[in-house]
Amino acid sequence: xxxxxxxxxxxxxxxxxxxxxxxxxxxxxxxxxxxxxxxxxxxxxxxxxxxxxxxxxxxxxxxxxxxxxxxxxxxxxxxxxxxxxxxxxxxxxxxxxxxxxxxxxxxxxxxxxxxxxxxxxxxxxxxxxxxxxxxxxxxxxxxxxxxxxxxxxxxxxxxxxxxxxxxxxxxxxxxxxxxxxxxxxxxxxxxxxxxxxxxxxxxxxxxxxxxxxxxxxxxxxxxxxxxxxxxxxxxxxxxxxxxxxxxxxxxxxxxxxxxxxxxxxxxxxxxxxxxxxxxxxx
Length: 282
Ligand SMILES: C[S@@+](CC[C@H](N)C(=O)[O-])C[C@H]1O[C@@H](n2cnc3c(N)ncnc32)[C@H](O)[C@@H]1O
Ligand SMILES: [Zn+2]
Description:
About 30% of the residues lie in helices and about 25% in strands.
């Protein structure tokens, strides 16, 4: 049994912004104005009321989520996940008890890896948020001890200064919301595509491949502490290549002919190129 008991997570009501409290039944959260939100059977909380949804199914759809899980579970991005865990270890070496939010967490792959690979994971209080309900349900099912929430990064349902650290892997964010939910001197860890990321896959799709910028622009109000670039080659099979394509934004540009050519290629070595940057709130 771990000796450390994580504090009860605190949320803000997405309708009126008042604090939300767990009700005596243990099955729902409610604010003083009686806006109430039930915990789903998987244990997650949906804090994205319909009036804040811009579409019926915002974020990644079920097919994209399934493709992402299939590709990630095959281990192709595991070296990057390990590097993320090592950066969290560095922050934790100065501050052992750490509340960490995975922003745009998708189906929770990195949350699971962090729980496995971080040296002091029992002192990490992990939370995840994503706008896609399917993804959050899948994440919560696999990792019931982590509190997952359906919500938007543009209007995070957490009080000011809730987290010691925010992790953002290939996901959108709002700089002011990041500043607001982080504690003083809080850390932000971003993973963004490096110039050569998935180069050979892109060559299939675009007549002229453009490299990503080498450095991601600094989020407003943060100072860069360190940057690490990780690149290596992967050789997914045809089915895994199709899954990879489906989880990327350039899937929209791949017509049936391109997809067939990608499927019929015997072997394709694809470069990965990740930029991990650790920032601190100024
Ligand atoms: C490229 S995926 C990355 C998912 C995960 N971090 C990973 O690397 O496996 C981007 C994620 O951001 C989510 N997303 C998009 N818009 C969002 C928003 N406004 N608020 C929260 N999440 C959002 C999507 O649903 C999707 O799961
Ligand atoms: Zn309310």
